[in-house]
Design a protein that fits this description.
single chain, 683 residues, five-stranded mixed β-barrel, five-stranded antiparallel β-sheet
């Protein structure tokens, strides 16, 4: 008979931490009064042992009748329980699993932000009850696709979390339904990674054995889920609490047996079950070693794991991920976690697209225990070690390297080049003065390593030298081929009151403010901004002085060009009086197109001053009598359409002068000359 034992069988970190906390308290002081809020774990044997040592289990803080220590188990509790403990004057020993505590913090934060919380899990499970308490007991709790489908469709903001011990299959199925019912949905996969790993191993082992034994407490939720997973693949799946519960089966007829255990199952219970299975098959569970003596199950089980230590570079397999972490199976008794910031510096990295479960990964061990029972890993450090020789060669060959700016420090920035940290002084970030170093954060720059200290493993890079060299080459190309009328694609580099400087390839040219638009421009920033890519043409240049004047306006946008196609001599147009001169009045045909009505073309009678009959802002019909589009000249005549009588005009003008003075600043003034013109036929 071949026995396959799941590596993840037995206590998870949270349960182990809670049990050890009680063990240590008992060892420190035999007279200490110890309570646990609910059974410390879902395992009758462990609970009975602690009870025999004087540890009392309570379901309510009000049951406690004397001062002492109260242990909160790994499942966690509601905020009200913490308050009751303080009010009772008890000494709190909090063994809440760190994974569960993260969920408490998450739902509390999201609830305060106005989110409705949905918990995927069993509403009667102590962990779910505790989580619900951190969002004021207002969470929706769903445990099936049917529960999800019964929820009303809503536009409210929703945050979905999971009980740490549910199956991935249930999580995905329920969330698919929730997506159809809620538009504003944020999902946080909070299934414990140890749970996922345990379930994955059972799923795999149960496919390849004749019989499966799942060991765990009768009230253990995660043990029941292991049983359900195994039963899908292996019909002969049995759930037992101890070796006494093993079924009466002739195991000699069974070739392969798989064994796993829930998170609340101690090693000695697993050992008893395997020993009993071996006895039934007349096999020995222990063996003699010439040097070490007898090796029991616990030792053999422990020795089956890979041994690692801080500073090691190891290979593992990706077994899962969330928005901020990648989980790695190292073959060690605990899983490894790579935080996103230790995975890559690439700001465009999307974890859902880049990470694939099952892929092999090489990582650096930062800590064997990060305080939560996991191994803290870094992929970036391995990348940096592998890339160091490449960066050194780039320094020797003066080859540019691409780097991502990851940090602003005193005097410059730190850039990551293939994981290797490179200091770039502020003066070396650009060929221009850099006012805000933070503008470069998370941007990719090209640098040349200009200083290298191998002992201190320090590198100094410069983007400026590359920019200047590139501009020098481009500049020679521009000056060698420049000519008036030639078009260039350039980038706006700076703005001044008098114009815009544009880089056309290593050479900065000036677009004067008058060349930015055919209409009047108050400031260049009204038209362009730094970084804009523009099409310009050369108006003039001076190679000796290294000056180039550029044009930005396009002929097709020239209002005079449009006017030349729109108007003809003899057309009657409505014009607006803009300003007066001694020889006539300047009028506007449309924005950007002005014409002149000579004083002799206003009335058939003699006029001493234009102001005697016309006011700024007035409109009138006029006839185009001459056009010179090339020189931007249009002559018009009012008298050919409706000549003005200066006598009547003077009278009516005096009556309306106050009104005109009050409204002449308005652009939409529409007082027409027709209101103050006498009929020439009545003279």
């Amino acid at each position: 008979m071949e026995i396959t034992i799941a590596k993840s069988a037995g206590f998870c970190f949270g349960v182990n931490n809670a049990v050890n906390m009680v063990y240590n308290m008992l060892e420190e002081n035999d007279n200490k009064c110890i309570y646990t809020f609910g059974p410390i774990i879902h395992n009758d044997q462990v609970v009975e042992y602690f009870t025999s040592k004087g540890v009392k289990t309570v379901e309510s803080i009000q049951q406690i009748d004397q001062k002492g220590h109260i242990v909160i188990r790994a499942h966690g509790v509601t905020p009200n329980i913490y308050k009751e403990i303080r009010d009772k004057g008890l000494i709190l020993e909090d063994a809440t699993c760190p994974y569960v505590k993260k969920i408490h913090n998450l739902v509390e934060e999201k609830s305060n932000e106005g989110y409705r919380i949905i918990i995927v899990g069993d509403k009667n499970h102590p962990e779910v009850i505790g989580i619900n308490g951190w969002c004021n007991n207002n969470a929706y709790i769903v445990n099936s696709v049917q529960d999800a489908n019964e929820m009303s469709i809503s536009d409210e903001k929703i945050c979905v979390v999971s009980q740490t011990t549910i199956t991935k299959e249930k999580w995905y199925e329920i969330n698919q339904c929730l997506k159809d019912r809620f538009k504003n949905l944020e999902q946080y996969d909070t299934i414990c990674n140890a749970t996922f790993k345990r379930q994955s191993e059972v799923d795999e082992i149960s496919k390849n054995v004749d019989m499966m034994i799942i060991i765990g407490g009768k009230n253990s939720s995660n043990t029941q889920k292991l049983f359900d997973i195994s039963k899908k693949h292996c019909a002969m799946t049995y759930k037992v609490q101890t070796s006494v519960d093993l079924p009466l089966i002739d195991v000699k007829k069974i070739k392969k047996i798989g064994i796993s255990a829930g998170a609340s199952t101690p090693d000695w219970v697993i050992e008893e079950v395997i020993k009993k299975m071996s006895e039934l098959n007349n096999q020995e569970i222990t063996k003699k070693d010439d040097n070490q003596g007898e090796i029991n199950f616990a030792d053999a089980f422990e020795s089956s794991f890979v041994r690692i230590q801080t500073g090691d570079i190891v290979k593992g397999k990706i077994i899962g991920f969330n928005a901020n972490e990648v989980f790695v199976d190292l073959g060690y008794k605990s899983d490894g976690i790579v935080s996103l910031q230790d995975y890559t510096d690439d700001p465009s990295f999307v974890i859902e697209k880049e990470i694939k479960i099952g892929d092999e990964i090489e990582v650096f061990v930062q800590k064997v225990n990060d305080g939560e029972g996991n191994v803290k890993l870094s992929k970036k450090q391995v990348d940096a070690m592998k890339s160091w020789d490449d960066i050194v060669k780039a320094y020797e060959d003066k080859t540019p390297v691409k780097a991502i700016v990851v940090e602003v420090v005193n005097g410059g920035v730190i850039a990551s080049a293939k994981g290797v940290r490179v200091f770039v002084p502020g003066s070396q970030l650009s060929d221009r003065y850099v006012k805000q170093l933070s503008d470069f954060l998370k941007k990719t720059i090209e640098v040349r390593i200009i200083d290298f200290n191998e002992k201190k493993r320090k590198l100094v890079g410069s983007a400026r030298v590359i920019i200047e060299e590139t501009k020098e080459i481009a500049s020679k190309e521009v000056w060698g081929n420049i000519e008036v009328g030639k078009n260039y694609t350039g980038t706006v580099k700076s703005l001044t009151d008098f114009g815009v400087f544009v880089d056309i390839g290593g050479v900065d040219g000036l677009i004067h403010v008058s060349e930015l638009s055919w209409s009047r421009v108050k400031h260049p920033s009204d038209v362009l901004k730094i970084g804009d890519v523009v099409e310009v043409s050369v108006l003039e240049f001076n190679k000796d002085k290294k000056k180039v004047s550029l044009g930005y306006r396009k002929n097709e946008d020239n209002p005079w060009f449009v006017a030349g196609q729109k108007y003809n001599v003899g057309d009657i147009v409505n014009v607006k009086v803009l300003r007066m001169a001694s020889f006539g009045a300047f009028v506007e045909l449309e924005e950007g197109v002005d014409g002149l009505v000579h004083i002799s073309q206003i009335s058939n009678k003699h006029i001493a001053k234009v102001e005697d009959v016309l006011q700024k802002g007035m409109s009138a019909d006029a006839k185009i009598v001459e056009m010179d589009i090339e020189n931007k000249k249009i002559s018009l005549s009012i008298k050919d359409v409706n000549p003005i009588d200066p006598v009547e005009e003077k009278s009516e003008t005096s009556e309306k002068s106050d009104e005109v003075n009050q409204t002449e600043h308005k652009e939409d003034m529409s007082v027409t000359l027709g209101d103050i013109v006498s009929d020439s036929n009545e003279e």
